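## tool: complex_structure
## caller: assistant
## args:
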Amino acid sequence: MRITRIVEKTAGIKSNIRNAVIDFSKITLSLVAVETDVIVDGKPVIGYGYTSNGRYAVGEVLRERIMPRLMEADPDSLLDADGYIDPHLLHDCLMKNEKVGGHGDRAHAVAAVDIAIWDAICKAREVPFYREVARRHNGGKALSLVNAYPGGGYYTEKGNAGLRDEMKGYLDQGYKLCKMKIGGASVAEDIERIEVAQAIVGEGNLAVDANAGLNRERVMAYAEALEPYKLAWFEEPCDSLDFELQTDLADRYPHPIATGENCFSRQDAKNLLRFGGLRPDRDVVQWDPSMAYGPTEFIRIVELSRPLGWKPESCSPHGGLLLGLGLAAGLELGGTENYPLVFQPYGGFSDDAVVENGMVAPCEAPGMGWETRSKLYNEVLKPLLD
Amino acid sequence: MRITRIVEKTAGIKSNIRNAVIDFSKITLSLVAVETDVIVDGKPVIGYGYTSNGRYAVGEVLRERIMPRLMEADPDSLLDADGYIDPHLLHDCLMKNEKVGGHGDRAHAVAAVDIAIWDAICKAREVPFYREVARRHNGGKALSLVNAYPGGGYYTEKGNAGLRDEMKGYLDQGYKLCKMKIGGASVAEDIERIEVAQAIVGEGNLAVDANAGLNRERVMAYAEALEPYKLAWFEEPCDSLDFELQTDLADRYPHPIATGENCFSRQDAKNLLRFGGLRPDRDVVQWDPSMAYGPTEFIRIVELSRPLGWKPESCSPHGGLLLGLGLAAGLELGGTENYPLVFQPYGGFSDDAVVENGMVAPCEAPGMGWETRSKLYNEVLKPLLD
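## result:
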């Protein structure tokens, strides 16, 4: 298996939503396509990947550093015993001449390539991504249904009425657990929003996400105000690097805390789990494979988490993509996010995915299953190599 | 004070040296110049900055994210009470719409702009950088002489004879403490190199730098082999994010360890100091202001280090630049690096700087003093806005 071509392109997400911290109208992402010399159904296998919709495009890192290393490598040096590209050898190749630490933009660039190569490997083997992950890393066991929740409840001009309608819509679509944003208003206003949403979804089925936008005083004020609502989790109360504040919060807030999406390497993840004050018996870790060096690193993080007391069920990939769904199914994780309304056409499961009782089946198409999302595939991914 | 123009440019360093991990021939860096509306000596004040020679250029991050935020900001919103740009307000402006965590490439981009603005502020005030730092952050106290050591001893084709000549050359130039690379050879070969160098510089005057290129087994083998030489410090024995290995090393290796150059934010620095196993009574922290959001963040890190038990004397900026010399003088730090032979024309002090008994005076030119390095100024920086 050889890579015969690789291209990257920057795209905008043109979203008018905001959370506690970010205005998404200027956010961009990087798309990657790789063509291989493997022929399936008479055509060369092509793999696709893209970075998160939550950060920025990394075109220069891809063009100047990551992609040339892949194309300059001896193709045979990247292969496993079966003749397919080995994701670990790939990772080392992409990271050649990169220093330790500073896991920022380059982690997204490597992720996009890693995702595209996994997509290509699975297509070459003619298996769905989740099956390949399960075979390699989970003794062949996989979930037939995965807990899925919509990441929504952003601040919009429609206010609380819009929030109510949005939550109703999620239930109509088959979701049980729903997530909404907090931290972009006063505590009192957010509590009102929480009551509006919880009245629809029911106690225990609402998670809230502060997007790390709260300072110490606000974190503690929210913790006190949120406690009676017994939320499914309180996501990113603060910067997950603020181990001190997070530990203090965990000492006072009895219900689950969730974090991890802004932690981009196994080294950082290990330190977060060891020193971040999180509680393996209740908290949720949400690594984002499209920001943190791709599924290869994600799997390593899940594996290093076990000896630290973290079961796979405590992990739920951030970012509502087929990628997260596949990892959740293949590693038997606790769940995965989805973006039914936002970040289109990048976020979301297959066009024909059915959510029932808050659960969804993994995609059975070969590879990541990008082709099962027609707008994403036809308008964004396929044109990359046309 | 207003920024009237800002430009960035990528440059290569075309260096054929290597350390344990990195081949420098492909390394690039980003240059930044800002023009202001402040007139001194009949000309607009111009500030310059550049990223580290140890990572890669960040042109896209500068062009697409950091620079537009500066130019789109209300100029008055960035000013302090004296009418100059306030570095903290500047930092917040440059980081608008950036998420928490992931302190990688963008930390270098912000650093280049922050350095250029500090250069401009000091030129507008007609004071040397170190004096301005001392006035703002050190009660006006500054060092008149700073400990300086050459970062050298790379692996070259000249072998041990070349290393011996290089160390002799440093002593002839007035240096006492000298640093050399290790980890790019076997332990036995490196011990031979250390003996060659130490025979020239004398016990206590040699530091070694492994550039985080050693795995656990090699770290421990080096620790045992290095111990009898009573080195000034053992720099970057491992990835500074590997708190576990670093702690184990600190438990076994009695002499100073140095690290910090690959830690790019105050959040990361705090965690390293709290959980990285380092010992404030002997170890050395080496934050790099040209990689880690610039002097503004560097000063914050030095300030947050104090309550954690770290005195300013334990800190020595990484990267051999006038920038590090100015910070060391203005904050009364333990020393600073210099690059007499490598990374030219970017590394190094003023052309007329005199090192005596291992010490050098800070640069008295207004701003960073880039103009006192003729090749750097005339061939690289000045043309940016010509």
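## assistant note: Chain A has two domains: 3-126, 136-374. Chain A touches chain B at residues 21-23, 26, 28, 54-61, 64-65, 97, 99-107, 211-212, 239-244, 262-265, 267-268, 270-271, 274-275, 291 (CB under 8 Å). Handing back to user.
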